[in-house]
């Protein structure tokens, strides 16, 4: 089960009221630094930007692939453990809009996790140490440690043997 907080809103739809989630200046700041980081091949500099400029809790030994996209409204709700690898064009979200509400939820990625290319991680999900998320998977619930998941929605494929 995902751990999210639901916030009800009055208005035409929740997305139209996104400034209730994060002020405009912060979204512009996050957008700038997240876009810069998406194209950087220098992992240490990329991690520094993600940590210092947008507030992602990312360990120094984590690696984020080109074009990976992090939530623009609340990237500070993301944590990435040591030795983890985030694949090319993966998306990690901490918010989602519904017609009359929005949800916020932290995303916790453990140590030595592999997130495959083009995978999407939804808000409120925890991915255990040593887990593997297959390319193109959509993770809608927690992934236990040392487990391989894949598909849409992501389902357990098997156990991961320690390397």
What can you see in these coordinates?
The chain has 163 residues and is of the alpha/beta class. The chain has a single domain (17-159), classed as UDP N-Acetylglucosamine Acyltransferase, domain 1 (3 Solenoid). Helix content is 15%, strand content 28%. A hairpin with a 4-residue loop joins strand 16 (147-150) and strand 17 (155-159).
Ends distance: 29 Å
CATH fold-level label: UDP N-Acetylglucosamine Acyltransferase, domain 1
CATH fourth-tier homologous superfamily: Hexapeptide repeat proteins
Number of separate domains = 1
CATH architecture: 3 Solenoid
Work out the helicity level: 10-25%
Strand-and-helix sequence, N→C?
EHHEEEEEEEEEEEEEEEE
Name the CATH class.
Answer: Mainly Beta
Brief digest:
It holds the Pfam family Hexapep. This protein has 2 helices and 17 strands. With 163 residues, the chain is of the alpha/beta class.
Key attributes of the depicted protein:
163 residues; alpha/beta; UDP N-Acetylglucosamine Acyltransferase, domain 1; 28% strand; Trimer_LpxA-like_sf
Write the topology of this structure.
Elements (H helix, E strand, L loop, with lengths): L4 E4 L15 H15 L4 H10 L4 E2 L4 E2 L4 E2 L7 E3 L4 E2 L4 E2 L2 E3 L3 E4 L2 E3 L4 E2 L4 E2 L4 E2 L4 E2 L4 E2 L7 E4 L4 E5 L4
Parallel strand pairs: 2-5, 3-6, 4-7, 5-10, 6-11, 7-12, 10-13, 11-14, 12-15, 14-16
Antiparallel strand pairs: 1-9, 8-9, 16-17
Helix pairs in contact: 1-2
